[in-house]
């Protein structure tokens, strides 16, 4: 009887004066303060089992909480095997018809259960890390391409080399030793082949530049030149324009607005964005760069190229996403 009275007294004293209950601690800092005996994933701080001794919840001494698992390996580890997945109430429903890869790979069904709707994101990423073409010589200002006539097209190379950073779409690559683009002859055209029908988003960005040096070339500049970045489709080795993005290349000038006396460069970022629907497999495409107008008959000595701007690590990039 004496022991029972002592237990009752201690319980009442704790509620009346302490308000906090501690397990394995003499100084509880909360209404219920549990201090485990270890700090590793191998020991348990808290277990909750059902009447059949099945583990419902486990908190390890390392802070991993497991639900329906005996061995949690993350801060929250939920094993949905044999039960419904994680349920979220009052969240917007994203069903299969509203799911658009690759922009979302997680949805919620009408019952509030999280379900994985994803798969492999289908894309291609190409990054040219050097000046283009690689034959350009900055010392002699030659070896690039000319920009003075609409009859000349420069192929922008996209191929399976060190610049290819990803290709889950499964594009294949090739080179036409001899081809035509809009009826004009072109040699060594690098192309890519779209393997299957669908809708594809193509994005290109690069910086074209033409340098003037004091050499025997006679320059008379007005300060602007229009150029085209061309997305072309092909039938055999015959390429034709699908989409043109026109850019304005503006000459670099001094503080008073005049062109530089001894050196001159004309540069501007070139961009292209194309959404292409294809209905047949193995569609062949290529990229080209072309003079349009301005600075008539000035850059005729292959003094133009795609440069790597200061602080950048590429002269141009090309991204394709299946949408």
From TrEMBL:
Keyword presence, Signal: yes
Keyword annotations: Signal
Taxonomic superkingdom: Bacteria
Residues in the signal sequence: 1-18
Protein name, entry field: C1q domain-containing protein
């Amino acid at each position: 009887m004496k022991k029972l009275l002592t237990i009752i007294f201690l319980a009442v004293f704790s509620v009346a004066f302490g308000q906090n209950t501690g397990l394995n601690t003499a100084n509880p800092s909360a209404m219920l303060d549990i201090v485990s005996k270890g700090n590793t994933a191998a020991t348990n701080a808290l277990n909750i089992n059902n009447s059949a001794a099945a583990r419902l919840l486990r908190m390890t001494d390392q802070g991993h909480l497991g639900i329906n698992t005996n061995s949690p390996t993350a801060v929250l580890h939920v094993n949905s095997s044999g039960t419904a997945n994680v349920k979220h109430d009052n969240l917007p429903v994203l069903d299969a018809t509203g799911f658009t890869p690759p922009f979302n790979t997680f949805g919620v069904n009408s019952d509030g259960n999280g379900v994985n709707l994803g798969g492999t994101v289908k894309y291609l990423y190409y990054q040219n890390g050097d000046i283009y073409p690689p034959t350009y010589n900055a010392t002699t200002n030659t070896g690039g391409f000319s920009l003075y006539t609409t009859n000349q097209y420069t192929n922008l190379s996209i191929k399976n080399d060190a610049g290819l950073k990803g290709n889950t779409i499964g594009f294949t690559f090739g080179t036409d030793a001899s081809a035509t683009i809009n009826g004009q002859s072109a040699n060594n055209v690098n192309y890519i082949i779209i393997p299957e029908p669908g809708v594809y988003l193509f994005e290109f960005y690069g910086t074209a530049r033409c340098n003037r040096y004091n050499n025997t070339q006679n320059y008379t500049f007005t300060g602007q030149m229009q150029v085209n970045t061309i997305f072309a489709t092909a039938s055999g080795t015959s390429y034709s324009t699908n989409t043109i993005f026109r850019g304005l290349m503006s000459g670099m000038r001094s503080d008073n607005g005049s062109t530089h006396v001894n050196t001159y460069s004309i540069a501007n970022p070139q961009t292209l964005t194309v959404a292409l629907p294809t209905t047949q497999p193995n569609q062949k495409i290529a990229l080209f760069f072309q003079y349009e107008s301005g600075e008539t008959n000035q850059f005729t000595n292959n003094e133009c190229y795609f440069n790597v701007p200061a602080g950048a690590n590429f002269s141009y990039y090309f991204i394709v996403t299946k949408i």
